[in-house]
Amino acid sequence: MLRVLGGLVIFTLTFSQAGWAASDRIALVMGMARYETLPGLDNTANDARAMANTLETIGFDVTLAVDASGAEITQLLDDFAFRSEVADLALVYFAGHGIEVQGENFLIPVDAQVQSNRDVQRQSVSLKQLLAAVDRARKMRIVILDSCRDNPLGDGIDPVQSTIAQITTEQTARGGGGGLAAADPDRGTMVAFAAKDGQVALDGSGKNSPFAMALMDKMVEPGLEISLMFRQVRDSVLRQTGNLQEPHTYGSLTGIPFYLAGAADGQPQLSNKATEAWAAIRPDQEDQLLALADLGDTRSMLGLAYMRLNPNEGRFDPAAAVSFLQRAADAGSPEAQFELAKLYERGTGVEPDAEKALSLYRAAADQNFADAINDLGFLHYQGGLGLPADSQKALRFFERAADLRHPQAQFNFAALIDDGLIPSKGPEESAFYLYAALRSGSADVLNLLSERPNMFTPETRRALQVKLREKAFYAGAIDGDFGPGTQRGIRRAYGIEE
Fold first, then answer.
1. Is the dihedral of CA 300, 16, 142, 50 positive or negative?
2. Residue 333, by phi and psi: left (phi above 0), alpha (psi -120 to 50) or beta?
């Protein structure tokens, strides 16, 4: 629909996904076994090859690297990061030596010549680099580390003389006591450790590690929601290892349920609308969500709330939804704060309360929840919820949401710049945000740039052509004419291969 702010037309986009985009699921799988200066690992290469095969069977486009050098891993991550911008889901799996140095996690390539912690920091790949490689995937980002171990070195200790400790089950551990440091990824990103921070991961007495076996067993099950899948992996590994190893996940996934292996037979494909998507969850999984909610899991509370906000379902119960959302909001979930704010604004399940709604929007925005920041921009522009109209404050919210990669805000902020409403920015900045909105995967942005490019000034159109040429999507003239060549470049930037 269109939202009109004064004389400016702002588009509220629906973010539909074109069915013919580039590979929507991509994975980079790495297994390090034959180390030059550290003890070799028996199963990591086996785990990587088996994981790659498993991911391919459920529709992933997989890149496999076994015993890669540091330079090779860096190049693989750079290439993967670019590809992930047009993927719905980007997943990185690493099996090998991984250690924590000064609170940061490092994954060690096979050619690292490490004799101290400093060598590890200089020659290894950090978890931050793996997170950056998946960071711009459109819907979900997953990093899986089957490499939870302590630092066997200590500054100045020859790693060849150090040993990998043995676990009392007589299974070799992928490290000694200590493990990796806890992770704190951005919203929409999950980091899964084979063992909880401070614990170690077992290499296993068979051909694969306990974690890899459990993960491969569960990820191919259709209709198994991803957060429940990792919970079942955890339970399986605990059983296999006699409670010596407990996998753990870090991060906060979005409120849309996700199935790695797709929907089960007879189960409708998931919708991008949370209330419809959660309604498709099987009854047995709803019971699991209720159990997890009782343990304080806020995503389970969100899912249960969304189920009760679907008016087409027999479970429709807005008051119960408010209760679930309030529990999650009180526990600090920004998505729950945002959804609860909307209910207070509309008076759904509760009495309308503008002050409460505004407080919740601000609480979510304080946690950099982009949807809340974008909505606060509209509220400030229009003077909603009792706020005085303040266009300058609104523009700051729009810019902040755009910089957090909110597709609607990116497109709208580009339009605001193009209309000359932000004197400090010009065509290059407008093109920057347009390109970012295009790469985010909104079919609406693709359609507008394809069908109505003249809504933007010639200067902005030329700047966008420059941006497309910089990224090797376009090789034609910089003339502002969005003819066949530019249109082809726009589609390629979106992720449509021609």
1. positive
2. beta
Tell me what pLDDT residue 498 has: 63
For residue 256, what pLDDT is reported? 87
pLDDT at 153: 55
| Whole-number Å distance between alpha carbons of 283 and 290 | 11
Contacts of 102 (CB under 8 A, 6+ apart): 117, 121
- Of 347, 378, 345, 380, the C-alpha closest to 360 is 345
Q: Got the DSSP string for 377-437?
A: HHHHHHTGGGPPP-HHHHHHHHHHHHHTT-HHHHHHHHHHHHTT--TT--HHHHHHHHHHH
8 Å CB contact between 490 and 449: yes
Is 127:73 a contact under the CB 8 Å cutoff? Answer: no
pLDDT value at position 101?
A: 86
Angle of the 443-451 helix axis to the 484-494 helix axis, nearest 10: 170
Q: Cβ distance 358 to 387 under 8 Å?
A: yes
Q: Which of 450, 444, 458 is nearest to 485 (CA)?
A: 450
Q: What pLDDT, on the 0 to 100 scale, is given for residue 182? A: 67
Listed as ranges, residues in the chain with pLDDT below 70 are: 1-23, 148-185, 198, 203-205, 270, 498
- Closest of 159, 130, 122 to residue 35, by C-alpha: 159
The residue behind tokens 């806020």 is 298
- pTM, two decimal places: 0.87
Q: By C-alpha distance, which of 61, 146, 49 is closest to 107?
A: 146
3-state secondary structure of 458: helix
Q: What are phi and psi of 150, to 5 degrees?
A: -85, 180
Residue 116 has what pLDDT? Answer: 83
**Beta-carbon contacts of residue 366 (< 8 Å; ≥ 6 apart):** none
428-461 burial by CB neighbour count: b if 16+ within 10 A, else e?
ebbbbbbbbbbbbbbbbbbebbeeebeebbeebb
Angle subtended by helix axes 407-418 and 427-439, to nearest 10: 160
∠ CA 206-207-210, rounded to 5°: 65
- Whose tokens are 């209760």? That residue is 323
Greatest Cα-to-Cα distance within the chain, rounded to the nearest angstrom? 73
Whole-angstrom CA distances from 405 to 85, 91, 468 are: 11, 19, 18
Helix residue spans in 98-199 (DSSP H)? 117-123, 127-134
